[in-house]
Design brief:
- This protein is α/β, with parallel strands linked by helices.
- The protein folds into 2 domains: 7-215, Spore Coat Polysaccharide Biosynthesis Protein SpsA, Chain A (Alpha-Beta Complex); 228-319, no CATH class.
- 42% of the residues lie in helices and 17% in strands.
- It contains 10 helices and 10 strands.
- It has helices spanning 20-28, 48-52, 68-77, 97-107, 152-161, 189-200, 228-246, 253-276, 281-292, 296-319, and strands at 7-13, 35-42, 58-63, 83-86, 91-93, 112-119, 127-128, 148-150, 170-173, 205-215.
- Strands 1, 2, 3, 4, 5, 6, 7, 8, 9 and 10 form a 10-stranded mixed β-sheet that branches.
- Helix 7 runs antiparallel to helix 8.
- The termini are far apart.
Length: 321
């Protein structure tokens, strides 16, 4: 690439002074050099502001705490680049992340690309995430020169069913972003942003199984740091319901059914949690009523499936101890 397109790197952060320097330095040390690096401080009360002063090449903007989507959107409002990438402040890019992603994006005139990563696990071993993603497996045979291209129907099918691309993994054209990260989402603000693009117009994307960054995990991660019950409540119930309402005119009947079944599955799973773990019979019953109100037959099938699956997990855990 003779003339490098300007890429804006948005780093949203909240009380991450211990990890933020690694993220900033991984952005600075990219082999792709034409970048604008913006740190959006989402109301931190630690020493984030003082820390960023050590990096004169980094723009710093402070805002009142409003969540990760709000911080990313603030960064987008300051972006001068025609290509955008959001790096979570607890993650680290490897040196060629931007070079490899931008080259693919520009060469094939794609809307966005995403890259595989090494992910920490609570067990201490690094997890090769995309190679173990069942929603991506059907596309692996299409790999060519390290990348797997997805046509519009494939992109649409994939992202209605799952979100294999957390924010730190994505490089996207600014012109492809419609209204930014969704601030009504509890967890999946990035997923909602991709869906808005994908459902609104034909777009093309690609991904690589090459691991180009590292995802670190701790107790305050928006997704990975939460208890499973919170993920159910916020991502699989509240966020899915919001997406169904937001995209109701754009979803095809089969796509709406997929989201509704995910929503009902979340309700049944959360009902089981409240019945067994919290001993809250009344709330468990109300959750099931919400699921029955959408589809009685699906809910009746889902209840034994969820309980059997939970029992199998418990037996497996006991066998491994």
């Amino acid at each position: 690439m003779d003339v490098q397109t300007l890429v804006t790197i948005i780093i949203p952060t909240y009380n991450r002074e211990s990890k933020l320097p690694d993220a900033i330095e991984s952005a600075i040390n990219q082999s792709y050099k034409n970048v604008q690096i913006i740190v959006i401080d989402d109301g931190s009360v630690d020493k984030t502001a003082e820390l960023v002063k050590n990096y004169p090449q980094v723009e710093y903007h402070y805002k009142k705490n409003g969540g990760q989507a709000s911080a990313r959107n603030t960064g987008l409002s300051h972006a001068r680049g025609s290509i955008i990438s959001s790096l979570d402040s607890d993650d680290v890019w490897y040196p060629d992340f931007l070079k490899d992603c931008v080259e693919k994006l520009e060469k094939d005139e794609l809307d966005f690309v995403f890259a595989n990563w090494d992910q920490d696990s609570k067990a201490g071993k690094s997890w090769d995430f995309l190679n173990n993603d069942p929603f991506l497996t059907p596309y692996f045979s299409k790999e060519k020169e390290g990348w797997i291209d997805l046509n519009y129907q494939e992109v649409r099918d994939l992202f209605v069913k799952s979100c294999p691309s957390p924010s730190s993994s994505v490089v996207i054209r600014k012109s492809s972003i419609i209204s930014g990260w969704d601030e009504d989402m509890n967890i999946g603000d990035d997923w909602c942003m991709y869906l808005e693009l994908i459902l609104s117009r034909e777009c093309r994307a690609a991904f690589t199984l090459n691991k180009l960054w590292h995802k670190r995990i701790d107790e305050i991660n928006v997704y990975d740091g939460r208890k499973w019950s919170e993920v159910l409540e916020f991502l699989y119930i509240a966020d899915v319901k919001t997406k169904i309402i937001k995209f109701q005119k754009l979803l095809r009947p089969k796509e709406k059914k997929i989201l509704e079944e995910r929503y009902m599955g979340g309700l049944v799973e959360f009902a089981k949690h409240n019945l067994i773990r919290e001993l809250n019979i009344k709330y468990s019953f109300l959750l099931l009523v919400r699921s029955f109100s959408i589809n009685v037959s699906f809910t009746l099938r889902e209840i034994p499936r969820v309980f059997i699956k939970g029992l199998q997990r418990k037996v497996s855990a006991q066998q491994n101890t």
